Amino acid sequence: MIYNYRNENMNKISSACGVDCIECRFINKECAGCLKVSGKPFWSAEYFAGEPCPIFKCAIVEKKYDNCGKCSELPCKLFFDLKDPSMSDEEHLKGITKRVGNLKRQ
Q: How many domains does the chain have?
C-alpha cells in the first residue's frame, strides 16, 4: 500500500511528480496527497475521467517506482504536456524545474 510519506532528508511530503504537498493550499482539506489517494486528487476527475493522473500511473502503477525521481526520463513528455491551464508557459516551466529538483533531492 502506498501512502504519502515524510522524507527524512527534506522533511516534506511529496507526490509522485515532485509537488511538495506541504506547500499545497489543499493538503488535508480537499486533498490528502496524490500518493494517499492513489493518484486521484479531487481536481483530477475533471481532467482524467476518474483515472489516476497519468504521471502517477506511469511512475507508481506501471513502473513501480516510489516517485518519478527514479526514472531516467525525468522530466518526461508528461511533465510538459500536463499543464495547469491557469498557468503561463513560464510558470509551468518553473514548476517543472522545482518538481524535478525536489525529486532529485529525495
A: 1
